[in-house]
Amino acid sequence: xKRKGKLHVLQGSAITVLAVPLTVAPWMSVxxxxxxxxxDRILNISSNYDAAGSPTATLFVSEDDIxxxxxxxFRVTLPSGVKWNNPIPANAxxxxxxxxxxxxxxxxxxVNNDNDKADKIQIPLDIKVNGASGELKVxxxxxxxxxxxxxxxxxxxxxxxxxxxxxxxxxxxxxxxDGAVIRIEEVAAGEVARGASSxxxxxxxxxxxxxxxxxxxxxxxxxxxTNVIMDGNTLTATLNIPSxxxxxxxxxxxxxIKAKSDAQPxxxxxxxxxAELSDAEVVIAKYREWGANIKVEQVNQILAxxxxxxxxxxxxxxxxxxxxxIGGREVEVELPDAVKIPGTVNPLTGIIVSPSINYSGSDVTxxxxxxRNTVTFAIPTTPSSSKxxxxxxxxxxxxxxxxxxIEATVQGAGIEKQEVVIAKSIPPGIPKxxxxxxxxxxxxxxxxxxxxxxxTVKGAVKQSxxxxxxxxxxxxxxxxxxxGVTFTGTPKIKVIEGDLLIDxxxxxxxxxxxKAPTDMYEGLKIDIKGESTKPSKIQISDIxxxxxxxxxxxxxxxxxxxxxxxxxxxxxxxxxTSGIPFKVADVITPAxxxxxxxxxxxxxxxxxxIGDVEKTMDAAPYIKNDRTYLPVRYVAEVMGINEDNxxxxxxxxxxxxxxGNKVVQIKMGVKKxxxxxxxxxxxxxxxxxxxxxxxxxxxxxxxxxxxxRWDAESKTVYIE
Length: 720
Known about the structure:
The protein is built from 3 helices and 65 strands. By secondary structure, it is mainly beta. The strands form 15 sheets. Strands 1, 2, 3, 4, 6, 7, 8, 10 and 11 form a 9-stranded mixed beta sheet that branches. A 6-stranded mixed beta sheet has the order 13-22-21-16-19-18, with no helix packed on it. Strands 24-36-35-26-32-31 form a 6-stranded mixed beta sheet, with no helix packed on it. It is elongated and about 145 Å long. InterPro entries: Cu_amine_oxidase-like_N (IPR012854), Mao_N_sf (IPR036582).
């Protein structure tokens, strides 16, 4: 007969399923086994366990090589100290029953000689324990049947109501940390009374509780801890187990603890006791004196906004004792967001392709993250016989406008989070006006006090900057204002202290720079001819500004930028698109309002209106060659241009009108007007009458954002 190999696995609420015999009776021959016998689960039970008609484990006897046969009799025997209650087998009839023995014969549908080798006899292990201990096995004896014999474990008797264990032990240092999860199991279903009971968890005196969380499953599902009191190394609480679920229960505790200053290396144990929990002691952690001594060789001053500063930071992180760093974890040195480790740069993107950093001191080298502001050291799992030193040296790039102490954060692998000053950031130059100026909205050529730009250290203002593969770039300083404020002439530049050399100076528009700040329209560009050997001061004088009506009242700031004080790669690296601001003046009482948006002129009348207000002028409008001629001076007033913003150049016979960021120029006898340097052709030329320039006004009105409308019936020109 050919044997069929089978492994039977059934799911249940017990811990383990066992499908093969643990021992084989001497009368059996494995080669001639005729049935496959197994218990579907192994129970963890108490010494007074009683299934009481509701057994949770079953002995299966399955056909293997041959079918069950009518008249076969086999015996099932319990171990000493265990008795049968009232088992009701399936597909078998009890022939004889004593306290520990059942003799059975196959019956019913399984006695069919169908040769399917699939029929099963099920014998529920409805038992009661009375004096047994340890591992319990049920024995199957074939007697005169074709059924195989053997001994099969069906239960293990535990002492007490619960057992406590941990799956893995955590290593901790001096910082607050979680220990191993404590698993408490009910030894048998119903051993622990449902409801509220007291529990206590005790740590060694050198440790203290920080937290204890718990979840329950099985018969302890929904369990909770209340009235938790943590007093140093002692934690007491009320354990609440809901009623109604009599299945075997499980509790999972996650302890959070912290070592005190006098803690000694070694195992950390927890003693567990309670009204319903059996006394137990488990190791939840191994305490080690982790930590590091952190040293910065020298705290250097670093120029913010630079990229090629050669001053480096040298940091050493040394174990307090051999093996103090936790193996398999990482030590992390994190710089502020405004600080990065520079190196080789992609000139198009400003991305650091290869950071410049050197490592030494031990067998551990670090890696720099993609943002170039974190160095990570992976600690080997094998401890070193001597104290490990993690040493790195690197230059730093500091974001424009960020000044003061630069602190690095060091933590990980047992090192408690520490902040260490590694450098000090200073600006390359400090701009400051000699006094506070005052400017009026809508006026041109207004003077402000001189501005001093003082180097903080020698050579801070660069003659040229190194762009790596892209070559070198001329160093220059930009001083500019927000849109609406422009220079009316080129200020004077002088080095009043030190030996910095200035080359050319010019007022330049943003469009004429290869890389201008995004908020710049026009600025003063100062080219640097030679770097200083001692801190120098630049004086900017004779500064005259025009302020158009788009500029709000309040503080007016100038901004400092340019490659001499801010390296282009620094700007790319930190996405800097603007200069560093500083106050130069207050914008105060605006020039006469430009809110008068309507006016009217009547042909032949010297009376005109601004809104509903009538005024008188010294020249009347007239019609010539079907065109209406109006006095430019009064039309400009209607459009919000005061007399200070109307300039007559007698030599060139040209009038200039200034409004906002627009300049309109009209020349006598020429059939065109010029708007911000762009010529617009007209069909007639302006003329002088009664010492007033007269002109058909449509083109001028349009250029200055207004509209001229003619009413033939009333012979009135409306300016809107």
